[in-house]
Structures are given as C-alpha cells and as structure tokens.
Specification:
The structure is a homotetramer.
Chain A (H helix, E strand, L loop, with lengths): L4 E5 L6 H16 L3 E4 L5 H11 L4 E5 L13 E4 L6 H8 L2 E5 L3 H12 L4 E4 L4 H6 L12 E4 L2 H12 L3
Helix pairs in contact in A: 1-2, 1-6, 3-4
Chain lengths: 167, 167, 167, 167
Amino acid sequence: MVRKMIAVIGGSECDEKGIELAEKLGEAIAKKGATLICGGRGGVMEAACRGAKKFNGLTIGLLPSLDKKDANSFVDIVIPTGLGYARNFIVAQAGDAVIAIAGSAGTLSEMAIAWFSDKPVIALESSGGWAKKLAGEAIDSRRTDVVHSASTPGEAVEIAFNVLGWE
Amino acid sequence: MVRKMIAVIGGSECDEKGIELAEKLGEAIAKKGATLICGGRGGVMEAACRGAKKFNGLTIGLLPSLDKKDANSFVDIVIPTGLGYARNFIVAQAGDAVIAIAGSAGTLSEMAIAWFSDKPVIALESSGGWAKKLAGEAIDSRRTDVVHSASTPGEAVEIAFNVLGWE
Amino acid sequence: MVRKMIAVIGGSECDEKGIELAEKLGEAIAKKGATLICGGRGGVMEAACRGAKKFNGLTIGLLPSLDKKDANSFVDIVIPTGLGYARNFIVAQAGDAVIAIAGSAGTLSEMAIAWFSDKPVIALESSGGWAKKLAGEAIDSRRTDVVHSASTPGEAVEIAFNVLGWE
Amino acid sequence: MVRKMIAVIGGSECDEKGIELAEKLGEAIAKKGATLICGGRGGVMEAACRGAKKFNGLTIGLLPSLDKKDANSFVDIVIPTGLGYARNFIVAQAGDAVIAIAGSAGTLSEMAIAWFSDKPVIALESSGGWAKKLAGEAIDSRRTDVVHSASTPGEAVEIAFNVLGWE
C-alpha cells in the first residue's frame, strides 16, 4: 500500500531550538504512521530522522552527492542523487505535504518549490528563519491557501493530515 | 539501519517471459530481505514489485513524472521526480547493485550509467534484449569485472549479495 | 572566449509593467555585450529575449520540457532539459549574475537558489512581486552582501557588471 | 533565429586518433554554420571545440560540476549544471542530432538516451569504442532507422544535415 509521506525541510546547520523541534517533529510523524523523507544530511534532517526512529518510523534521505556514506545515521533508505542542490526539488515533490523548520536560503527554495507545485506547506513558525518569515504569507496571490502556519511539531503534523484528508 | 537496496531495471513493455522473470526476481529480492527500487511504472517494473509484495518486501518507485498516480499499484514508496528519463540516473545510483531484465534503449542507458558508476550490474541473460547482449561483456576495457551474467532470477540476486559481501 | 552571461528570472505570466521592464532589461544586457540566459518561455522571459534581439544580443533558453518548439521566438539557442522546474537550478547557475523581475513562487525559488550559490542577485525593485519583497533583504545572515536592489533595468545591469568586475 | 545544434559526445579520455577525428568533426560542424554543444570537458569534447573555434563556430559546454572553470578553453558558453553525469541527458537532448566519437560507458549511455528520444544518432565508426560497436546496429527493434554510421567527420555532419532536412 502506498505510504503516507511527509517531507521535512530545514538546514544542515541549525540552532539548538530548531534541532529540538525537528526531533519532536520526527517523533510526531512516526507516531502517526507516516514515512519521513528529507535531504538525508545533518542538522534539522538528522534530528528529524532520529526522532522518527525512536518510534520505529521509516526514514528516507535523498542525498545531493553520490556517496551513500554522506547520509546521517538515522536514514533507513539512502538515495544518492548526484544532483547537488537540484535534489531539493525531489524532496519537495516526494512529500504529500512539506513541513519547514527554521532554515536559510536552501530551505526557502524548497518552500517555494512546494508552493508552486500546489503542495501543502506547513511552516513551523516557532523555529524562526524563513519558516517563520513566510508562515501564513500568501507567496503568490493565486495560491493563498497553500501556506499554513503551526506553532508546535504536533500541530504541524495534524495540519498536514487534515489538509490531506488522512486519518 | 540502512536497508540493502537492489535496483531492478527493464522496460515498461516486455514479453511474457520477461514479466515472469521479473516477478521471480522481485520475489527473490524480498525473500533475501532487500528493498527493491525501480522506475515505478509498468512492465518489468510492475512485475518485479508484484513479486516483492508477495513476500512482504518493501518497494520504491522513482517516477519520471510528478504524478504519484503514475506508479504501479505494488509500489509502497512513490517518489515523483519530474525529471523525465533523467530519473534513470537516480534509479541506477540508488541500488547497491543493479539487475537488468530484457530491455531496449532505456534499459541500456541505465546499464551504462551503472557501469560508469562502478556499480555491480547483473544482466539476466535469459531475458533477452540488451540484458542478454551485454551480459558478460567488458563494456569498457578498464572495468572488465563490473558486468555479471546470471541465468535465473535467484542466481542474479545471489551474485549481487556475493559481490557486495552481504549475508 | 568565454561569454559574459546574465540570467534573467521572472514569471511566464506578468503584468504590463513587468513586461516593459523585462524588455528594457534585455536591451541593456545586449548593449553591454553580455549573453542572456533564461527559462526560454513567455512573459518576462520572452520580453527580455525580444529586447536583447533588438540589439543583436545572443539569447539562450533552458526549457522545462523536451520540445524545442516550446521556446519563445526570440531564443537563439534552445536547450530542452526535460527536467521540469528543476531546470530553474541550471538557469540560476548559468548566469554569472542573476537579475529578477517581478515573479511569484517560481522566481522566488530561483532567487533563493542563486543566493545559496553565493551568486550575485539583483532584484528589480520597481517590478513588484518577490523581486520587490526581497530587494535588499539579507536572506541569510551569513550572506548579507549577496542581494542587490536596482530601480531601473539599466542600473540592474550596471550593478551586475560592477559586482563581477566586468568592464 | 533558432540555431542549428549538433551535440558531440565522446569521452574525456581518448586515443590520438579519436582526438584527431573530434577536431575534424568540430571543424566540419562550424563550417556548416551549426552550433556545437557538448559536455564541455577534455578529450573528445575539447578537441571538437578547438576544431569549431578554428572556423569561428559557436561552442556550448554543459558541465557536470558547478564550476565554470572546469570547462575547456574552447567553450564560449559555459553552463555549469551541478547535475553530475545526469547532464548527459541534457547534452543528448540539446542537439538536433548527436554525433558519437569513440567512447566508453558514458558515451554509450548518451547514445542510448538519444536513441530512446528518437533523435538521430550518427556513430563515427572509424573512431572505435562504442561508437563503432553500435554503428548501424538496431539498438531497439522498434527504431531501426535511428542509428547511422559514418566513416569520416565530414560524412557524419552531412548525414545529420540530410536527416534533419537542413541545407
């Protein structure tokens, strides 16, 4: 059966608060039985995967490089793309919904990609960075309903499930 | 823990013999506990996924399109790349080994990609097509040991496990 | 000799003011002898190419599709990528500098890509859209000098030449 | 006006004979007024660009890396893709026809890509390598007319122009 998939985006460098939120987010995704997909590296990505594995969730990492060893140690399924940052496109596309934590320009590009793909984006406002700046903003006047704002990891996952009509 | 991954490549159109071999191949991969990754479409890909699901294997499909609905119904994890045939690169890279069944030009390109990535390629000789033509051939004089030839699906999986040093 | 290349990013849909600015931008790029690279489609991209051809500039279009016929009629060199929106990455990388006009989420993603690639981005503030919103903003605290704001097309090109140390 | 484009594919390492043929091929393409597109690196690619520049041809290089400095010194338009070997797909797509010289697995993959894209492929038989092995072969029974064999660079360009109906 097709797995429910949630993409987590956020930088490989992140402050302690972002890391904590990312870990809680991974836990929340796994508890709801969804699969977590991300860029497979450190920082937000590693913390989210670590959280998911605590609850026996399945984790997927789409690496920019061709070397499977570049994945963090909480990734179950390592997919080395060799596409560099263009792999951000695939991360954004692969999630049924995309949850953003903190983040700088790389995360912003992924949020923008998800937006113009009409994919639900949930910004974890409390994490700061671009997730905060864009939370609730109508990035494109034609798509004002695409962007959602959450204040906790649990709320972010709940919004994703609601928007997608999942149980 | 990082999953063992076997990529299966082969055309979306295929004769009956190729389909049967692909299904057996999927079964053999699942029985050994490996994850099957493929292009997610019909023909060889669908048959291999169907075989894997019979034995409760995990299946991943990297689609050329952006529409998750384009996946065959035996794919658990659907990754829509939007890259068109360039997704062939990622399929070839994602497997720890690549097993080819029958196939025309698309399959040949994937075999060539795996070769120049120094990834073990096992051609299922009995399936015909390019898999047969290239079985055992030294595609590049510097990499004569990369290409392997198998006569049954079970043997193909065994070769993959041996070459990779897996139990 | 390696050509000087300026990437122009902006939407395929755009109001009249953006179109006028884009055409002037194309003219300014061609007059300075630089090559214009863009996504090859309509709207801002077509207007910029049209402007460049008035002054005999060279124009390159990187299409999302595989069909060369999808290019606007002012593109000299048509490169069909088949990568969908992932071609945005290449557009942003191919310019020595990137100039943004108006634009919605697609343009925002390209600006963000240019930013995290440490490539000079010049936002044509007067054109509105995301170009305006991000003009002068420090998108990432580590890269505060990367973003430039221009009020006219001519000024945008001049900033690009200055930043790059071109005559 | 849209430029006529010929893609040249062949390895970055090549024997002297292949280099000579590649240079002559670049000359022949430029003399006929076509634009040469290639992977932008050394070996066959550099020799072909060098030949084209002797006759004032325009040369384009699609690099695997993100660093424009990786281009050979005869490339006019440097497009750094950051896609690694997946840039092979774009090289094959960007030519209206594809001419292959010598080559190992990388070249074979590009020939196969051109084939399944129904793009005319001309293999320079005299250069050896995969170009020779596949010259004239019906790589896929459904597309027996796609592959052409040429014995000299001039003949290869002439076949391309004939097949495409160019003057």
